[in-house]
């Protein structure tokens, strides 16, 4: 599990490209190396990856077909930078919201509004069906960052970013058209799905009753 509080950024040093498979070698910040071991979970742009090799501060991670399909990690090239978070531990402060590191879709940056000390970024999810889970003042994970949703339309949503978030994460350098990873708040998803299921069952019961009356 993760908290959505990015602990640092890491530069991608090398990519070993194979058929529907990649290995990324990243340079982890020194403060994130203590206790790191093979098999440990580390979120890259919000996507949970497993440590496969450690050589000093050069750490390797494998990306399989499903990861490449659902996330923006397959677009990265050496020199690119990703948001990094080590897995949460019991007793850690949960400053964001609980996140699984399972990316559900990506979103395109479709609008950026800059003002003094603030930035408003609008996102258009690749899978528009996921918009039903994105609610005003709800939570969403964007490239591994726990953020509060601002305005919402049927096809897009925005977040408001403070200077600290812009300085500590990759969102400060993002441009129009770039894709980010999206993780939906699982509690919101469960509530929406449950309500939809109950309403569908109720509608079905009403229609069945009405059909019987007209026989």
TrEMBL record:
Question: Which controlled-vocabulary keywords does the entry list?
Answer: Repeat, Riboflavin biosynthesis, Transferase
Q: In which pathway does it act?
A: Cofactor biosynthesis; riboflavin biosynthesis; riboflavin from 2-hydroxy-3-oxobutyl phosphate and 5-amino-6-(D-ribitylamino)uracil: step 2/2
Q: What class of enzyme is it?
A: transferase
Per its database record, what is this protein's job? Catalyzes the dismutation of two molecules of 6,7-dimethyl-8-ribityllumazine, resulting in the formation of riboflavin and 5-amino-6-(D-ribitylamino)uracil.
Pfam assignment, any one: Lum_binding
Taxonomic source organism = Duffyella gerundensis
> Where are the coiled-coil regions?
none
| Classification via NCBIfam families | PRK09289.1 (NF006767), PRK13020.1 (NF009566), ribE (TIGR00187)
Q: What is this protein called?
A: Riboflavin synthase
Its gene is ribE
What is catalysed by this protein? Answer: 2 6,7-dimethyl-8-(1-D-ribityl)lumazine + H(+) = 5-amino-6-(D-ribitylamino)uracil + riboflavin
Q: Which InterPro entries match?
A: ATP_synth_asu-like_sf (IPR023366), Lumazine-bd (IPR001783), Lumazine-bd_dom (IPR026017), Riboflavin_synthase-like_b-brl (IPR017938)
Documented EC number(s): 2.5.1.9
Lumazine-binding domain residues: 1-97, 98-195
SUPFAM superfamilies in UniProt: Riboflavin synthase domain-like
Can you quote a single GO CC term? cytosol
* Keyword Nucleotide-binding (UniProt): no
Any one Gene Ontology BP term: riboflavin biosynthetic process
Q: Does the keyword Transferase apply?
A: yes
Q: Name one GO molecular function term.
A: riboflavin synthase activity
The Lumazine-binding repeat boundaries are 1-97, 98-195
Can you tell which superkingdom this protein's organism belongs to? Bacteria
């Amino acid at each position: 599990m993760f908290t959505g509080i990015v602990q640092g950024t890491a530069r991608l040093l090398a990519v070993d490209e194979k058929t529907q498979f990649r290995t990324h070698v990243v340079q982890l910040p020194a403060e994130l190396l203590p206790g790191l071991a093979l098999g440990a979970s580390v979120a890259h742009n919000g996507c949970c990856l497993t440590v496969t090799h450690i050589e000093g501060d050069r750490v390797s991670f494998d990306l399989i077909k499903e990861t490449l399909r659902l996330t923006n990690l397959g677009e990265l090239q050496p020199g690119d930078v990703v948001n990094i978070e080590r897995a949460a531990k019991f007793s850690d402060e949960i400053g964001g919201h609980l996140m699984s590191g399972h990316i559900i879709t990506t979103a395109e940056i479709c609008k950026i509004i800059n003002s003094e000390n603030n930035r408003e970024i609008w996102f258009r999810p690749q899978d528009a069906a996921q918009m039903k889970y994105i609610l005003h003042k709800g939570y969403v994970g964007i490239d591994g960052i726990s953020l509060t949703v601002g305005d919402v339309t049927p096809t897009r949503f925005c977040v408001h970013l403070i200077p600290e978030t812009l300085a500590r994460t990759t969102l400060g350098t993002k441009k129009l058209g770039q894709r980010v990873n999206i993780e939906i708040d699982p509690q919101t998803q469960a509530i929406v799905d449950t309500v939809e299921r109950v309403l569908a069952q109720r509608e079905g019961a009403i229609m069945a009753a009405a059909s019987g009356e007209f026989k």
